[in-house]
């Protein structure tokens, strides 16, 4: 995590619409603020860490409620099958988040899309024996409960919430190569059962494509930046931790966890990091167009890299 600072102050970056600089639609306006009157760098750093943690917690509201539902349904006897109850619960959560405006209808649509992508993957993985869902349910098809898609949707919800709460901006994003690689990542989850696993070459390709892509975010009075690829890796690590909690609560089980719970293999951390990139592509596709299509005159939060933006103008 790099602070976009200089001297003793803090730089705030915001992207302005319709400002072309050498073919790019961006640049930044920079203002400076101090550490909000806090003289000690250590105290200020601790406060920033607490602020960052709090923003992460509230960005994880949907995943948090989902895990609460998993815990309650594991230890409390329910009048209906556990997976049926979890499906109703997750649908109610989705409606509630939309009703109280924690998520817009466009974000709900993107999250639902990721739900379907996740269900497709689940149906295949359960069929080939990669993992299983214990217990029966009316809403269980091909060995997969319909609620399972919400575990993928929770990742999309987190990205949408974090985008708003951290005031995210993405610079030098290359949409087409990133989307192609995200599609290859999804395909590789299926094809590696018959052909060599290509996740490492695909991951290296993603690193190349995203080598100049930065994500800017705000914590308190300070603006920071981080390589987007690093953000994928960090989110993937915490998803691996969440997966361990999920299997402990018997949301699903890997073959070596059926008789006794074991830690999920650390290799799954890499798989989650790649899966995050898929979710990000879905969310970014909406965020890149919001200023242009939905809120005309407002800045887009995803800045397309200059060469791709120039190519789009030429094609038009």
From TrEMBL:
It comes from the Bacteria. Pfam families: DUF817 (PF05675). Keywords: Membrane, Transmembrane, Transmembrane helix. The chain crosses the membrane at residues 52-74, 80-100, 107-124, 144-163, 175-195, 201-221, 228-249, 269-289. This is DUF817 domain-containing protein. It comes from Kribbella karoonensis.
């Amino acid at each position: 995590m790099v602070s976009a600072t200089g001297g003793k102050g803090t730089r705030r970056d915001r992207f302005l619409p319709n400002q072309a600089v050498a073919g790019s639609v961006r640049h930044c306006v920079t203002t400076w603020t101090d550490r909000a009157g806090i003289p000690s760098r250590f105290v200020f750093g601790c406060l920033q860490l607490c602020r960052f943690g709090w923003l992460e917690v509230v960005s994880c509201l949907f995943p948090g409620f989902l895990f609460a539902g998993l815990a309650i349904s594991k230890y409390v006897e329910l009048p209906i099958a556990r997976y049926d109850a979890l499906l109703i619960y997750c649908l109610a959560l989705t409606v509630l988040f939309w009703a109280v405006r924690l998520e817009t209808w466009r974000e709900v649509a993107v999250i639902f899309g990721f739900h379907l992508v996740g269900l497709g993957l689940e149906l295949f993985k359960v069929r080939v024996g990669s993992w299983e869902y214990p217990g029966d349910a009316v809403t269980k098809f091909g060995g997969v409960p319909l609620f399972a898609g919400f575990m993928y949707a929770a990742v999309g919800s987190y990205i949408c919430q974090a985008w708003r709460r951290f005031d995210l901006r993405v610079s030098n994003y290359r949409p087409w190569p990133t989307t192609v690689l995200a599609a290859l990542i999804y395909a590789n989850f299926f094809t590696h059962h018959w052909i060599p696993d290509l996740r490492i070459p695909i991951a290296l390709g993603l690193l190349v494509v995203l080598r100049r892509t930065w994500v800017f975010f705000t914590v308190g009075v300070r603006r920071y930046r981080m390589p987007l690829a690093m953000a994928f890796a960090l989110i993937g690590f915490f998803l691996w931790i969440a997966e361990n909690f999920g299997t402990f609560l018997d949301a699903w089980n890997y073959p070596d966890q059926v008789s006794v719970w074991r830690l999920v293999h650390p290799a799954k951390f890499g798989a989650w990091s790649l899966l995050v990139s898929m979710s990000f592509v879905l969310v970014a596709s909406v965020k890149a167009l919001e200023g242009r299509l939905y809120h005309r005159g407002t800045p887009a939060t995803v800045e397309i890299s200059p060469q791709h933006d120039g190519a789009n103008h030429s094609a038009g």
